Amino acid sequence: MSSVTRMANSKLPTPWGTFTLIGFEEKGTGKDHAALVMGNIDDGQPVLGRIHSECLTGDALFSLRCDCGFQLQAALENIAKEGRGILLYVRQEGRGIGLLNKIHAYHLQDQGKDTVEANVELGFAADMRDYTICADMLHSLGVKQMKLMTNNPRKVKAMENFGIEVVERVPLQEGRNPFNEGYLDTKAGKLGHMLKS
Ligand SMILES: Nc1nc2c(ncn2[C@@H]2O[C@H](COP(=O)(O)OP(=O)(O)OP(=O)(O)O)[C@@H](O)[C@H]2O)c(=O)[nH]1
Ligand SMILES: [Zn+2]
Predict the structure, then answer these.
(1) 79 CB under 6 A from ligand 1?
(2) For residues 55 and 57, what is the distance between their CA atoms, to the nearest angstrom?
(3) Of 68, 92, 112, 192, which cross-links 58 as Cys (Cβ 3.0–4.6 Å)?
């Protein structure tokens, strides 16, 4: 039984090419999620793709505190270059704790905590995300094998657990800068991200 219902789609022109924007509604919560698709992704061949967790600050407010906005742009560029692929835009802001709690977490980080310590101090796990909805969106779109753009081994494992074969992990190291290097180093050191400093 799928955790999402496909609701609507439209064209989405971007500086890198025109994608098809597909909206999904998460059953139970009613939360909306999106997929940006280019080319034919249900032909059984491995699909270049990214599971992008929403980060308002990085994706839309030009934040240098993280790498999300840089990764979002690079992922769309890579898919457009290949002419085929999918980016899931998953409303899991703050590694699943939401924007306001992420701002609380940032405030703790301004006081010297790292991104994991801040989550824990707020009473959350380091990473609250569940990828069931991602697998269900991919299944509904006929994606069976992926070349997954990520540095996060948990995403690779999650997809494999849901029966999506990750034939290749494509590193996506973008936007390292003095404001996010501590965050990136913590992700590598405490969350197992495959990031070269
Ligand atoms: N709670 C919390 N969430 C953060 C913080 N910085 C970024 N995020 C969230 O983390 C998510 C992005 O996850 P990342 O850890 O940057 O990367 P990832 O998506 O797990 O792995 P990649 O696929 O390699 O990018 C987004 O939801 C961001 O809002 C932080 O300091 N605290
Ligand atoms: Zn971010």
Answers:
(1) no
(2) 5
(3) 68
Low-confidence residues of the chain, pLDDT below 70?
Answer: 197
Q: For residue 133, how far is its CA from the centre of ligand 2 (angstroms)?
A: 20
Q: Where are the chain's structural domains? A: 4-92+129-191, 101-128
Looking at the CA of 109, which ligand is closest?
1
Name the class of domain 4-92+129-191.
alpha beta
Task: Please identify, by atom number, the ligand 1 atom nearest to the C-alpha of residue 99.
Answer: 29
Question: Phi and psi dihedrals of 59, rounded to 5?
Answer: -75, -30
ipTM higher than 0.90?
yes
Predicted pLDDT at 194: 84
In this prediction, residue 149 carries a pLDDT of 98
Ligand 1 touching residue 71 (CB < 6 A): yes
Picking from 61, 53, 57, 58, the residue whose alpha carbon sits closest to that of residue 69 is 58
- CA nearest 68: which of 195, 179, 173? 173
Atom of ligand 1 nearest to the CA of 71: 25
Per-residue confidence (pLDDT) for residue 45, from 0 to 100: 95
- Contact predicate 101/56, CB 8 Å: no
For the stretch 166-191, pLDDT in tens is 999 999 999 999 999 989 898 888 88
Ligand 1 contact, 74 CB (< 6 A): no
Whole-model pTM?
0.96
